[in-house]
Amino acid sequence: MNQLDIEGAAGLSVRGARQVPGATQAYDKLVSDGVAAKLLDKDPTLWGPAAEAESKIRLGWVDTHRRSRELVPRLAELRKELTARGLDHVVLAGMGGSSLAPEVITATLGVALTILDTTDPHQIRRALGDRLSRTVVVVASKSGSTVETDSHRRAYLTAFEDAGLDNIGGRFVVITDPGSPFEGTAREMGAHVVLADPEVGGRYSALTAFGLVPSALAGVNIAELLDQAEEFYASLGGDTGNPALALGAALGAAALSGRDKVALISDGTGITGLGDWAEQLIAESTGKDGRGILPVVVETPTSPGAIGSDVLTVTYGGSLGPDAVPGGGVTPHLAVNGPLGAQFLAWEFATAIAGRVIGINPFDQPNVAESKENTNRILENGLPSSQPSFTEGAIEVYTSGSATTVFDAVHELVTAAEPGGYVAVMAYLDRIGDAAAADVRPAIAAQTGRSVTFGWGPRFLHSTGQYHKGGPQEGAFLQITGVVTDDLPVPGRPFTFGELIAAQAGGDRQALSGRHRPLLHLHLTDRSAGIAQLVKALQKG
Ligand SMILES: O=P(O)(O)OC[C@H]1O[C@](O)(CO)[C@@H](O)[C@@H]1O
Prior knowledge:
Layout lengths: L5 E2 L5 E3 L7 H10 L2 H6 L8 H8 L7 H4 L3 H14 L4 E5 L6 H10 L4 E3 L4 H8 L6 E6 L6 H16 L9 E5 L4 H9 L2 E4 L13 H10 L3 H15 L6 H14 L4 E6 L7 H13 L7 E4 L13 E7 L16 E4 L2 H19 L9 H14 L8 E3 L2 E4 L7 H11 L5 E7 L11 H9 L2 E6 L7 H7 L4 E8 L14 H18 L4 E6 L2 H14 L1
Parallel strand pairs: 3-4, 3-5, 5-6, 6-7, 8-9, 8-10, 10-11, 14-15, 14-16, 16-17
Antiparallel strand pairs: 1-2, 2-11, 12-13, 13-17
The site of 6-O-phosphono-beta-D-fructofuranose (F6P) has 15 residues, from loops.
């Protein structure tokens, strides 16, 4: 470690922070304003008067890990009860902050958990067909009004009833805020109910019931995560030896100096998938008022997009020894290493700090509602009819440009993004069955040298979706949808999952085109053939 590196408690270190241009000045200003201690003290004035009311009720994450302790014995008991009933397959239904942390936790610790954060009927059908009689469904929604999650609950309820299973209510565990619509529904169903910490927003909720309940039921030792957070907490109030303060200062200062894309890359040292969780935290927290930091999850240290003139390269992983070379194969601006429980708290603290540095309120998400409203309107009135501009193989192309091939249409889109802008690939597909669609990201990034993000729809709507609409208006958007060959009704609702996902995609197209953003829609009439054709066309150039 050298003087640019800061090691805090719990073995969490941030290397490189002070070499990021502007970071030292930002850090010194934070110190002279006493921000670290004030944040630890939950001071709601740190983000200005306009953000104060929201901040007042959103700072519980600072020490929520302490209140979460009471969950440890309770969840051990519940797990015992469920396994005694033979319910050993845990399915988590939840969007954004209600499922991303358990995904990282279980992936990192090698524990099986089935996650439903989709409305793709094929993916949902596959989950419903998997060990149904042994399934316990964790329904996680802070607001208790998220359409995707409620639809999953309905689908499982009907599947359990159709299979003639007993004690159906007891096959559900509902996590929600006290008094939310889901609390009443859960009690009526006879579900197990775990009320969440209401003073913690979804994306800051890793160490609340949202992160811990599904993880514990799946078999994770959650006490260990809480211990790591508690140990790291000791570093948070200080002006020295505070890696989270350094991380926040560097993220904020980099964005102000033009490195406003953050490539998030695993260094391969034992933490899996933190990038997807941090992506939501950073994008939804900072992408507003025409400002923000764009997180770009990059597959490996050598994948396209890891470095660039407007990119802050950040690697993450488990604790590293003092002489270790960080980065896992790339030279990062910042390397964040340490145990997972400490990482969650460090990134949350750093994001709140970066929000202050760039001058936004890190606790609201003012532009998320728009696509949801468009979706509801489409579900009521139907999608406006449209004809493809042309069809190539298994791909229908909807473009306002003049291209006549898929490759040219993508090229046209990419060149329409502002210099220093980005391309967002948004795939409303089955993220297991259609996993190869993720290859589109590196293929476009390699061709263009631009920052390219990839998100599964509708999951990204609860993450980078906020940034797309609220952040700097410099994105170009590639939306990919796919044929539905085996649709599934949403029980008790006047639409199917296939109609819902189409309406979500259509609603987001309306939100983006309303902002006059470049948008290309590709519809796959045969999913696997279409993906293979698209990736091949892009790779060939
Ligand atoms: O937990 P809920 O209320 O279902 O919300 C899920 C996600 O949707 C959002 O509220 C908005 O997209 C996220 O901030 C949140 O994590």
